[in-house]
Amino acid sequence: MLNISLPDNLEAVIAQQAEQAGFDTATDYLVHLVLREQDRLSQQAKIEALLIEGLESREPIEATDEWWEQRRSVAWQQQTQTTPLW
């Protein structure tokens, strides 16, 4: 178990945020925040690994305005083909 001492004003803020978020206790709220941060860091690590993998996958290309327009066009076509508009 970990005990943390907080200044009174910060403790009040945490208690208020916990209540507004629907948590029974400030501890439950803080646990939730820590778990969310762990998830965020995990997702960030995955994204960074994918970016590095992409950078190392082949010769670099110049991402010009035309290249981005082509990518947007392809993405739009893929989106409209797989997702009904209604």
Describe the structure.
- The chain is an all-alpha fold.
- The protein has a domain at 1-58.
- It is built from three helices and no strands.
- The chain has helices spanning 8-20, 26-57, 65-82.
- Helix 1 (8-20) packs across helix 2.
- The radius of gyration is 22 Å and the shape is elongated.
Shape: elongated
- Strand and helix order: HHH
| Average pLDDT taken over every residue | 90
Structural class label? mainly alpha
Per DSSP, the total helix count is: 3
Query: How many DSSP E strands?
Result: 0
Largest sheet: none
Measured on Cα atoms, how large is the radius of gyration?
Answer: 22 Å
Low-confidence stretches: none
Entry keywords:
single chain, 73% helix, 86 residues, mainly alpha
Brief overview, please?
The protein has three helices and no strands. With 86 residues, it is mostly helical. The chain has a domain of 58 residues.
How are the SSEs ordered, and which strands pair?
Elements: H1 8-20, H2 26-57, H3 65-82
Helix pairs in contact: 1-2
